[in-house]
Each structure stands twice: as C-alpha cells, then as structure tokens.
Protein: Ribosomal RNA small subunit methyltransferase I
Amino acid sequence: MEDGASTTGTGARPVSLTVSAVPPEPGLYLVATPIGAARDITLRALDVLNTADMLAAEDTRNLRHLLDIHGIPVRGRRLVAYHDHNADRARPAILAALGEGKSVAYASDAGTPLVADPGYRLARDAAEAGFVVRALPGPSAALAALSVSGLPSDRFLFVGFPPAAAGARRKWIASWQKIDATVIVFESPRRVKQLLENLCESEANRTTVICRELTKKFEEVMRGSAAELAERIPEEGLRGEVVMLFGRPEPVVADEGSLRAALEGLLGALPVKAAAAEVAARFGLPRREVYALAVEMKRERE
Structure:
C-alpha cells in the first residue's frame, strides 16, 4: 500500500547483517516489510531475504533499497518484479522456481503481502500446486492504524480501497455501513475529503480516525466525527499515505424524522428510486414504504 521503507531521524546509516542464517526450505515466503521506519523489519525477514534462492517484489527498486539499508547483498540471485500489470506473465517463472525446489521470498512495497496488493493469486497457485507457503509476519498499515485509533478492536473489517467514481463509492459505503465492526479503509490522500463528504450524506456523526504517514517522520492521527474531519481536510486533500477507520454504527431509530433526514441527504444526488432503496436497506424497512415517503418529499420540494 505504502511507499518503500525509509530511514527515520537524522544521521541514519546502513546496518550490516552479520548473523549467518540457515537457508529456508523450498517454498514461497511472504515477507512483511516496513511501512515507514526501516528498522521495523523482523530478524526472520532479514534472514529469509538474505538466503532465499529467488527474490520477488512489487517494485524491485524498493526491495533493492531495503536490502541496501540492511546490508544484504543480492549476490547474483534472480530478482523478479511481480505486480498488477505483469502478474500473469511473472507467476509462471516463480512457480517454476518452486518446482525446481527453490525458496522464493516475495515482498510487497510496504507492509504485509496480500493485503491490498497482487500477491493473492501467487500464494493461491503455489498452495494449489502443493508447494510450501509461509508467512513472515511483521508491519501492517491496517493493524498499526487500528492499534493507535482508540476504536474497538475486538471485531474489525478491512474493506481495501474505495471505488473512484462517486456513485460506486456510495454503494460501497452502504455495503459496510451497517456492519457492527470497526471498518478499516485504505484511501488516496487526494480523495479523503470526498469520501468523508459521501459518508456525511447519510451518517455525518460516524466516529472517524485518519492515520497519516504511520511510523514516518510526519506521522499524524486525526480523530472526530466524519463531519468534523471533512471540515478540517483541505480541498486538495492530504499528503502521504493514509489509513481511515470508522467506528461502529450508532443504533438507528426508524421514525419518520430519521427517514426524512436520511432521504434528504440522498435525493439531491440519486434518483428517487435509488435513494429510497438505499435508505430502506439501511433501516431494514420495505422499499415501498420508503419510496412513498421519498416521492412525497420530492413533491414538497417542487
């Protein structure tokens, strides 16, 4: 999700890897890498990156930078790029290496592999082919944000990146809005304000936390309601990597006032039928009843 790992503070310098590690058994190793501070990597991850037969990464430049920081030489090993645009072409070469009894370390740009990155099919195909698949746990932007958010962590839902189009984004919000869990979202810093404004159309008081640049020099955590944070975010959005979290929904009372308030926020942006369907689903009411109220409200406006 995030940019490659970087050192933090002043006077940072590479740290040499001096411990000799036992080469891993043949298989695919999913290596979690730092989301900001380079020293957040685990010793086991360094061992595997130092000894695996093949290295794979979303961006090989970022992986080379991480290896340089920790003093790990490539030593002529094959370094394969594996990302959304070449996954179908690159996957056979990685599977072939596994078939030859080699160990392959796959690292995302930052954080835990397979969380909002293209490693899912690689891990699935390797497992289905009978190869060993191991996870090397470590940094995760989603879990780091949950830890500092102050929101309940006993039940949470990661929903990835929102759709870019406004209409699709509203439907996407409705898909998780009623779920009794803390919701974790990855969002482009430029679209944070838009997402908050879309949420405010139906739930302006939803408890919201925005985590920016986690573990990096300018780390920032913003807390408040969706409406409060929408006011604080500039029109051009934010800078840096962003994780957004939304607290559990408040109990909804299905009285006429609540229905009118919910419809009011949607009738200007959606057709009457679509607005009624969304509000009916939110309150668990028959669409016909909510549609009749929506038509009445539209007539009142006209």
User: Anything to note?
Assistant: The chain has a mean pLDDT of 90. The chain has three domains: 27-139, 142-246, 256-301. The first strand starts at residue 27 and ends at 31.
